[in-house]
Amino acid sequence: MPAKVIFVLPDLAGGGAQRVMLTLSSALDPTRYTPSLLVVGGQGPLSPAVPRDLPVTYGHHSRIRSALPWMLGQIRASRPAAIVSTLAYVNLALLAAKPLLPRNTRLIVREANRPEATIAAMPRLLPAKQLYRWLYPRADAVIAQTAEIAAALERLVPRIGARLSLLPNPVAVEELRRRAMHPERQAGSGLQLVAAGRLTRQKGFDRLIHLMMQLPADTRLDILGDGPLRSELSEMIQAAQLQERVTLPGFTSTVAAHLAGADALVMTSLWEGLPNVALEALAVGTPVIGTPQSGLAELAAEIPDAVQVADHDDDFTAYLGRLQPTRAPVEKPRPSLLPERYTASMVAAGFETLLSDALNRRP
């Protein structure tokens, strides 16, 4: 009988961590595993992306603390072979409650960001470092997206040991390229740039708006996504008189088509783990330029012609200045620039090995 695996998500917002969990759950071998989703909140922008044959249970809770009794009840009723969680605050809650989980259920946590950035973002009264050191050794397996994140976890949690595994984010390349089959591009002869993500402080889109003031007047930028800073960013655009050059289209299901139509994806994040949007841009043949904090270091070392890390604003504008805007209509995605190890099939194979090892390992 296939082993039950529950993927726990805080919500179905349009975040990269949620997309990774959907991709992994969908890619499991159905003869070996029966996946399902346990969503703390309700439906969200990613709900339409959930496969029809993937069972979903919604808790309609706004906080993990109030949702924990419900989560434990669902897990006990299902008695899964494994639970897979992502985002540190969900991981910590489940790890704290691990003694209350079914005895043979394995708990696998995925670190979605650099732990030092996560700790800095947590409430000051919360002893975040101590919680990591105390609770993360309880995990049956810990997934790090990059070697940098793995090294940070080893420094922070010396007892993590052999439980730590490196597994990059998966990209369903063929599906993504199908969605990008009709690239979207603004009219004009200048550079067409795109940025994407939640409109929050983390993404640093305010810096990107300031950078646009230093670029040629025919440069265009679409910032895809929605979030709490939408009004503030809109006011910045108006104050800088960039309304004709910078747009905020909001959350869209056509991100892949926008990426395929752009000359570059630009990232000015203050912190990232391994950004899915960068992987997706590369999969549709679009180069990436970002800040050192944007989680691009390993990609830049692996494919330096396709990924550039700009240490300063001058570097950023210099890299953009070397790009040549696409003159001919973009009728289909360019050839993929993404290394094969990030493809969904390769990552899913690694994840299944990790899952099998966790299930066969003694608690």
From TrEMBL:
InterPro entries named among the record's database cross-references: Glyco_trans_1 (IPR001296), Glyco_trans_4-like_N (IPR028098), Glycosyltransferase_grp1 (IPR050194)
Q: Where is the Glycosyl transferase family domain?
A: 192-303
Question: Which GO terms of the molecular function aspect are on file?
Answer: glycosyltransferase activity
Q: Which domain of life is it from?
A: Bacteria
Pfam families linked: Glyco_transf_4 (PF13439), Glycos_transf_1 (PF00534)
Positions of the Glycosyltransferase subfamily 4-like N-terminal domain: 15-174
Q: Which Gene3D superfamilies did the record assign? A: Glycogen Phosphorylase B
Q: Which PANTHER family match?
A: SULFOQUINOVOSYL TRANSFERASE SQD2 (PTHR45947), TEICHURONIC ACID BIOSYNTHESIS GLYCOSYLTRANSFERASE TUAC-RELATED (PTHR45947:SF15)
Q: What is this protein called?
A: Glycosyltransferase
